[in-house]
Amino acid sequence: MIDQIKKILSSEFETELFEFAIYNLNDKGNKLRYNNFAYSIRELSRHFLHRLAPDENVKECDWFVVITENGLPTRTQRIKYAIQGGINDEILDDLGLDSAELNEEVKSIKKTIDSLSKYTHINPESFDLKDEEINDMSAKVLTEFKNFAERIESYRDDLRQFLDGKIEEHMIDGVISNFYENVDMLAPHHSLDYSEISEYHIIEINQSSIVVEVFGDIHFTLEYGSRKERREGDGLDLHETFPFQTKIFYEISSDFPSNKYEIEEFDVDTEEWYGDSTDEEIDVMIDEEIDKNNNS
Question: HEC string of 125-192?
Fold first, then answer.
């Protein structure tokens, strides 16, 4: 179970905190070893949840309301954000999901994380425990933390997969149009023939956007030769394909994909086109292609 939990953790701090929690647990000369361990795991759960749901992100969600005296999000609100970001319950229902059912799951996950607190109290019953008792109780603590973390990730994945199913390739293909600076370096003129999407998936749902990462290929015609040369048949058209990767940020709304979106600036990957050739060698290759085209 220790190895499984390590795979869940992503930051260096979380991993180190967990490792020292286990170190405390194995310190058999310390009568508080179980209590220190349980407290450390509870704090780990707090940091884990805060990483998934930072204060400012949660506060910017339109479903957020201030409940605590200090104005900070509650654990329930953080869990809700970790799963659905800024998508409010009304939008979930409009998209075809049962928000009431998801809210019940959020409450259930909160009970799991709350249960970690009961293991941290120091009293005669939890002080200087026998090894067998520590083994049993520490296993329960680790199980509770693992269940808490995995259930959040599971519901996050379910929501992303559901929304993935609402995206069609032509929707993405229609928004992949940009200025490709590094392609301009390859030829005086070029035209975009068409693009092909090879893969796309939602990678994030934050307070304002649903972020879709897109991979694909763009097919260009690289045009060489001046207008005069091309009129006289001395020009050359090269049909090339280049891979690209970008992100589309769809504004959260009841319609998904939303008509309001932003595309992350990107260039196509022309590295393979250049290979190890120098600019002069590329010019020679182009001249040879032109001559070959004219002779044929």
Answer: CCCCCCHHHHHHHHHHHHHHHHHHHHHHHHHHHHHHHHHHCCCCHHHHHCCCCCCCHHHHCCCCEEEE
Cα separation, 247 vs 262, in Å, equals 8
Phi/psi region, residue 110 (left: phi>0; alpha: psi -120 to 50; beta: rest), is alpha
Please, what sign has the CA dihedral across residues 210, 215, 221, 222?
positive
How far apart CA 83 and CA 91 sit, in angstroms, is 14
Distance CA 115, CA 184 (A): 60
Task: In whole angstroms, give the CA distance from residue 53 to residue 82.
Answer: 5
Q: What is the pLDDT of residues 101-132, one digit of tens each?
A: 999 999 999 998 888 887 777 777 767 778 88
What is the CB neighbour count within 10 angstroms for residue 189? 15
Residue ranges in the chain modelled with pLDDT below 70 = 126, 177-185, 229-230, 273-296
- Cα separations (Å) of 43 from 21, 38, 247, 248? 10, 9, 34, 35
Angle at 90 between CA 204 and CA 254, to 5 degrees: 60
In sequence order, the 6+-apart residues with CB closer than 8 A to the CB of 275 are none
Does pTM top 0.70 for this prediction?
yes
Backbone angle region of 289, left / alpha / beta, with phi > 0 → left and psi within -120 to 50 → alpha: alpha
Contact 78, 49 (CB under 8 A): yes
pLDDT digits (tens, 9 = 90+) for 42-59: 999 999 999 999 999 999
User: Buried b vs exposed e over 59-87: b needs ≥16 C-beta within 10 Å?
Assistant: eebebbeeeeeeeebebebbbbbbbbbbb
Please tell me whether the peptide bond between 243 and the residue prior to it is cis, using omega within 30 degrees of 0: no
Q: What is the side-by-side order of every strand in the sheet holding 261-263?
A: 189-205, 209-224, 236-251, 261-263
